[in-house]
């Protein structure tokens, strides 16, 4: 099969590792496993971080990619409930374990060191394979798993979003933030967003947001406070000074859920701002099998569709990564593998 292979380890801060488009051996299904013929894959910022050497435990050679959708090509011994030809998507949360509160010590994310979706075929444990929601196109289905899982756990499982909550999501446009907006709005929450792009704010409003502000404006925190009236729930992937701004915007007794820190550490945080407001601050990453199943059920019940920004052929993945690094997309960037 054709695949994109990561072969070179790089040190953090060094040159980004190249992806090699080449022939590799087809995967074979062992007991309890399923081989999927992939139609589409999708990008995540994790893929770029792996190429930059920013994840621990990187092993090469390996095939990146955490998101994908396709058709079952082979069933391993003991697999029940599926048949060859079924249309499926994969849960990229590998080996979560039995405790829904946190993952097992052997937990990993699909795609480095476990071979991922930047390939024509992939081998998965049967427990990680789910029927493709029928209302989604192949591109949309490939775009959903990691972003949908992360956003659902952040907004619902951890954030406990409620109808009429005011939710703030900074940095709208990324895959997880965009899905988090859809999930919160589907629960009847009033969602406000931030972006450096007025166009992205307008697209978020068309997707269900109640409003937003451009964080390039010097007084954007005051603007958002006046517009939203404070947050009952904030979903943060940015960290840095933005995290402190979310504490400023937080209503007493509200929740802040963090799943990323693209702007680095939070420096000079004044703890009284947290405990005097009685804030609940929670961390999350990925999600449990139950989270994934509930996320799929919500998308089917509400007929939600993840936003696909642009589609590249598999062999052009490095160009797609560059677009994602520039932060110009709104929603997910997808790779076409086999039509």
UniProtKB/TrEMBL annotation:
InterPro entries: ADH-like_C, ADH-like_N, ER, GroES-like_sf, NAD(P)-bd_dom_sf, Zinc_ADH-like
Protein name: NADPH:quinone reductase-like Zn-dependent oxidoreductase
Residues covered by the Enoyl reductase (ER) domain: 14-335
Lineage: Bacteria, Bacillati, Bacillota, Bacilli, Bacillales
Domain of life per record: Bacteria
One Pfam family in the UniProt entry: ADH_zinc_N
Gene3D superfamilies: Medium-chain alcohol dehydrogenases, catalytic domain, NAD(P)-binding Rossmann-like Domain
């Amino acid at each position: 099969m054709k695949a994109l292979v990561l072969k070179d380890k790089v040190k953090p801060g060094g040159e980004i590792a190249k992806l090699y488009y080449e022939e590799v051996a087809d995967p074979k299904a062992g007991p309890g496993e399923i081989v999927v013929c992939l139609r589409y894959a999708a990008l995540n910022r994790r893929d770029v971080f792996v190429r930059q050497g920013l994840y621990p435990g990187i092993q090469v050679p390996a095939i990146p990619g955490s998101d994908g959708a396709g058709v079952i090509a082979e069933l391993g011994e003991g697999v029940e409930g599926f048949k060859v030809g079924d249309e499926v998507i994969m849960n990229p949360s590998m080996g979560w374990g039995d405790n829904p509160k946190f993952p097992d010590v052997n937990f990993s994310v699909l795609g480095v060191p476990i071979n991922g979706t930047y390939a024509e075929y992939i081998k998965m444990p049967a427990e990680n394979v789910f029927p493709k929601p029928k209302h989604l196109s192949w591109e949309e289905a490939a775009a959903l798993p990691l972003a949908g899982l992360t956003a659902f756990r952040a907004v619902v499982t951890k954030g406990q979003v409620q109808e009429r909550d005011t939710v703030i999501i900074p940095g709208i446009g990324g895959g997880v933030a965009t899905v988090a907006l859809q999930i919160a709005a589907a629960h009847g929450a009033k969602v406000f967003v931030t972006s450096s792009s007025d166009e992205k704010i307008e697209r978020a409003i068309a997707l269900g947001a109640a409003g937003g502000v451009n964080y390039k404006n010097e007084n954007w925190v005051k603007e958002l406070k006046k517009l939203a009236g404070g947050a009952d729930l904030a979903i943060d992937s940015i960290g840095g000074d933005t995290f402190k701004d979310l504490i400023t915007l937080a209503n007493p007794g509200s929740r802040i859920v963090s799943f990323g820190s693209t702007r680095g550490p939070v420096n000079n945080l004044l703890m009284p701002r947290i405990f005097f407001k009685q804030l609940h601050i929670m961390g999350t990453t990925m999600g449990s099998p139950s989270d994934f199943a509930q996320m799929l059920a919500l998308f089917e019940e509400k007929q939600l569709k993840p936003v696909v920004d642009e589609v590249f052929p598999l062999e052009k993945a490095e160009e797609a990564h560059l677009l994602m690094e520039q932060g110009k997309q709104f929603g997910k960037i997808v790779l076409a593998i086999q039509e």
